[in-house]
Amino acid sequence: MRKWIRLKEHMTQSQHNTPASPATAHGAVADIRSGRGTALQADPAYFGDWAGDSFQRDERTALQRVEGLETGAEREEGVDIEYRQVRLERVVLVGIWGDSTQSQAEDSLRELAALAETAGSEVLDGLIQHRDTPDPSTYLGKGKAHELADLVATLSADTVIVDSELAPSQRRALEDVVGVKVIDRTALILDIFARHAKSREGKAQVELAQLEYLLPRLRGWGESMSRQAGGRVAGGAGIGSRGPGETQIELDRRRIRTRMAKLRRDIAKMGPAREQQRSERRRTGVPSVAVVGYTNAGKSSLLNKLTGAGVLVENALFATLDPTVRRVKTSEGREYTMSDTVGFVRQLPTQLVEAFRSTLEEAGEADVLLHVVDSSHEDPVGQVEAVHEVLREVPGTAEAREIIVLSKSDLADPVDLAALRSRFPRSVAVSCLTGEGLGELRSTIEEALPHPTIEMTTVIPYTDGSLLSRIHDAGKLLEPVQYREEGTWVHALVTQELESALREATAQ
Ligand SMILES: Nc1nc2c(ncn2[C@@H]2O[C@H](COP(=O)(O)OP(=O)(O)OP(=O)(O)O)[C@@H](O)[C@H]2O)c(=O)[nH]1
Ligand SMILES: [Mg+2]
C-alpha cells in the first residue's frame, strides 16, 4: 500500500482567527458582502522598521491581534466583541503528487503552509499522497481519506486544506469522511486577498472573484440539503455541507448575479480614472519602473528603500494588493516613477488572474521591470519561471527591460547567490537589511531607463515656466540656462514628448 509522505519541517507557529469557510451559503454571501475576510491574518513576529514606515500594518492588524487570548491575561486594549467569535483554526494540509517530483510537491505544500499561516491558521501537519490523478469522488482515495480522518481526530484539527482546486462535490464528499471543514487552495487565496485589499477597486475586484468562486458551489450546498431531506442523518456531515433549500439557493443565486453585475459596472467605471493617470504619465514622458516578483520576495521593502515610501512590509503572502506609485529622481535629477505590484503565486485562482489583470497592466506599461527574486528561497529559479509565465500573458511586458534583483542577499548562501548571478546575467544582489547592492541597483536602473536623446536649443517664454521644470525632470541640460528678454534660453537633451511640447510652446 502506498504510504503518506509527511513534511518533515515544522511548519508554523500558532495564530488565531475566524472560521475560514462559511457554514452556509447564506453566511458566505453575507461575509463577502460585508467585505470581511473569512480568516484572520496577523504577523506579530515582525516588527522591523528598517524597510521604512509600515503604517498600514497597524491598521490591518488592529482588529486581528489576539495574543493572550488563551490565558485571557494580556488581551489588548481596543479588542472588541468580535473576538468572542474568533476561533483558533488548526489545520492539516493535504496534497497529491502526480506527474511532478516529490520535492516539487513538498515545496508546493510548504507554500500552502505559508498561505495558511498568512490567513492566520496554525498548521499542525502536512501530508502528500502519490497518485496519478485525484479521486473523482473524495480527491484522496477512500482509504487515505479515512486515514486523514483519524489524523484529524488525533490532532483535534478543525480544518483540512487541500492543495488544489476541488470540485464542489469532492469537497463535500471529503468533508463527510473527515468530519471537519475542508477548504481548497483557491478559497484560501481568495480569503487572503479579501483581507488585504485596500483600495475601492481592489476590494471590488476581490469580491467579484469570490462571488464567481461561490456561484457554482451553491448547488453543492443545495444537493447536500436534499440528500439530508431524503432521509440521511446529518450526523457525519461536515459543517460546510449543509445549506439552505433550493428556493433559498435560487434567491441567493439571483442576489449574487445582481451583485456581480453591479461590481462589474463599478470596476468598469474605475478603469478610466486609472487610464487617465497612466496616459498623463505617458504624455509627460516620465519613465516608469514596475517592481514585480513572487509573493513575499521583498518587493515592498525594496520600494521603500529606494523611494522612502511607507509601503506595508510584512512577512506574509500577498501583503501588497494595491499598486503604489512613487516618484524617484536619478542621480542626475531626472524623474521616474516606481510602482509596487501584487505578488505572484503558482496556481493563482483564475478568477483572480482576471480580476488583477488591470493591476498587472501597470507592469505592462513600464519601461523597466524590476523583477525581485528571494535569493534565500529554496527554489528561486522556479519562482522566476512562474513569474515569467504570468508576465507573458500581460501585453507590453516583453518590450520592457528586465532587471533581476536577487533580494535578501544577507540570508542567502553565498554559493547559491553566485550561481544565481551567473544564471541571470543582468542581475543585482541586494539586501534591504544591510543596504548591500542598493547603490549598484540604483545605477543599473538609471542605465536601463530610456534616456533623453534629442538635442535641442530653444527659448522658452517666461509664461511657460512649467516646461523648464520638465526639462529639469526629464531632460538633461548641456549648458547653463540663460535668462534673456524673450524667455529662458536652453540647450538640452530632451525626450520625444518634451520635444513636441517645446515645439508647440515656442511656435506661437
Ligand atoms: N533578511 C531580510 N529580510 C527581508 C529583506 N527584504 C525583505 N525582507 C523580509 O521579507 C518579508 C517580505 O517582504 P515584503 O517587502 O513585504 O515582500 P513583498 O514582495 O512586497 O510581499 P507581498 O506584497 O506579500 O507579495 C518581510 O518580512 C521583510 O522584512 C532583506 O533584504 N533581508
Ligand atoms: Mg508587498
Automatic annotation (TrEMBL):
The entry's keywords: Cytoplasm, GTP-binding, Magnesium, Metal-binding, Nucleotide-binding
UniProt cross-references to SUPFAM superfamilies, sorted A to Z: P-loop containing nucleoside triphosphate hydrolases
Pfam family, one: GTP-bdg_M
GO molecular function, one term: GTP binding
Tagged with keyword Protein biosynthesis: no
Cell compartments where the protein resides: Cytoplasm
Recorded superkingdom: Bacteria
Family the UniProt entry places it in: Belongs to the TRAFAC class OBG-HflX-like GTPase superfamily. HflX GTPase family.
Function, in words: GTPase that associates with the 50S ribosomal subunit and may have a role during protein synthesis or ribosome biogenesis.
Complex formation: Monomer. Associates with the 50S ribosomal subunit.
Descriptive protein name: GTPase HflX
Species of the source: Ancrocorticia populi
Chain's gene name: hflX
